[in-house]
Backbone:
């Protein structure tokens, strides 16, 4: 049995948290022999750097930007085992904890942080495209800012309640405490902050294809993404 093929080019995957974006992005990259980049993890790592510097919401923007930009952040692009390191430390688990989740929207809204991380993300994309394959990039501003020329842009969506339930299950599997009401409130808070920030707000690119995942399984979403990539001529 032959596989679906090999990706050539960039697939930009955007959308709010809880839409299944990370899961399907990784599976799409793995299925097509492509690299994978979780840009949200880089912002979480930058936020952790700010917290490790002893800063919180009361700190000045300049101090937070300085702490974030002094950090060494490295993203692994293997979809089977993606990694994120901060100053040499594996922080994949720590960046998903409550302190980072509560603070990441504030740190990621800072223009000085976004400028540096977008440049780093674009360098990862360029390196992947210089090789034999393509890359699947997920985040909140991929199709609008990071890779505006991507030949396939997808915006995943789902209802607040469905996304909160998915977040809750993810937290439970990771051993983190789960309160359904708190999780739903946090999902809505993140949406509000991400969609109203002055720099690179979360919104669907004009030429992105909308995929509602409310009633779709992960396999069904993956099948649709494979179909779209082939339809755009990105699979060889």
Residues:
């Amino acid at each position: 049995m032959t596989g679906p093929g090999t990706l050539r080019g960039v697939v930009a995957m955007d959308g709010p948290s809880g839409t299944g974006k990370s899961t399907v992005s990784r599976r799409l990259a793995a299925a097509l022999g492509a690299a994978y980049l979780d840009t949200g993890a880089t912002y979480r790592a930058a936020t952790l750097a700010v917290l490790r510097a002893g800063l919180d919401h009361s700190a000045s923007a300049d101090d937070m930007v300085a702490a974030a930009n002094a950090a060494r952040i490295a993203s692994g692009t293997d979809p089977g085992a993606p990694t994120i390191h901060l100053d040499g430390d594996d922080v994949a688990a720590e960046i998903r904890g409550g302190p980072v989740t509560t603070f990441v929207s504030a740190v990621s809204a800072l223009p000085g942080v976004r400028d540096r991380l977008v440049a780093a993300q674009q360098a990862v994309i360029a390196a992947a495209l210089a090789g034999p394959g393509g890359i699947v990039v997920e985040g909140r501003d991929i199709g609008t800012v990071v890779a505006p020329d991507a030949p396939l842009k997808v915006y995943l969506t789902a209802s607040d309640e469905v996304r909160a339930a998915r977040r809750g299950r993810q937290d439970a599997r990771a051993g983190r405490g789960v309160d359904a009401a708190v999780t739903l409130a946090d999902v809505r808070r993140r949406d509000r902050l991400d969609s109203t920030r002055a720099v690179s707000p979360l919104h669907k690119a004009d030429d992105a294809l909308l995929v509602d995942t409310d009633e779709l399984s992960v396999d069904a979403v993956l099948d649709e993404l494979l179909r779209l990539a082939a339809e755009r001529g990105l699979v060889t």
User: Anything to note?
Assistant: The first helix runs from residue 21 to 31. The radius of gyration is 17 Å. The longest strand covers residues 152-157. DSSP finds nine helices and eight strands in the chain.
